[in-house]
Amino acid sequence: xxxxxxxxxxxxxxxxxxxxxxxxxxxxxxxxxxxxxxxxxxxxxxxxxxxxxxxxxxxxxxxxxxxxxxxxxxxxxxxxxxxxxxxxxxxxxxxxxxxxxxxxxxxxxxxxxxxxxxxxxxxxxxxxxxxxxxxxxxxxxxx
Amino acid sequence: xxxxxxxxxxxxxxxxxxxxxxxxxxxxxxxxxxxxxxxxxxxxxxxxxxxxxxxxxxxxxxxxxxxxxxxxxxxxxxxxxxxxxxxxxxxxxxxxxxxxxxxxxxxxxxxxxxxxxxxxxxxxxxxxxxxxxxxxxxxxxxx
Lengths: 143, 143
Description:
Two copies of one chain form a homodimer. Chain A is an alpha+beta fold.
């Protein structure tokens, strides 16, 4: 086999090995009529404003925590660990002690919709500014 | 370098090359304060019952359609293409002509929450049975 062909084969095989198992397990889990675990799939949005109803979502990310952490959330694994530690209670996410934020009032509203461990979630929370939002928890609201 | 170390290095590099670009673009997109495109991130659930309020979500999948199709939805790409073709109108998803379903009444309710092209989505629809649900569109409700 010429060298380039061998490299192409290696890359394809490795991609399957690395990316494949995730897709495979997700498929198996979502397709089975009786899933082995309670689903945890969320959409988080953030936008400027006091209430979600009046604000346009500027960013929206997905977060799936079962069977594995995934989604477009930039820190999916940390976010899942944090949520598991509070039992899915978004109000219980503690603020970080080291965050230094100004008192500027430029409210941002975060929404969370979907399912956490089999229970429907519909959550909304307003922070006085972006910095304060990002200071809660270490990952969940930082997107 | 011993052979095993070289292989480990190859796998790591390849994994970064193959999986990295996706993560990178997702990060850039979700982190930038002014995203280059309107976000499209959804959570779809399905459960037995007539109304979402009375039913337990048995399955829940995420679907992200920008910048690329992703999520735990088993056919994310097809689902995104279908939704784009109806402009995000879930009621406009046509039923497949070739679906053969019984008239059995065992209702399943589907919910869709999140954001489609920058607009909030909160959708609920009841189908008379699982087969009828899966006959709508080719992918969106088939999870």
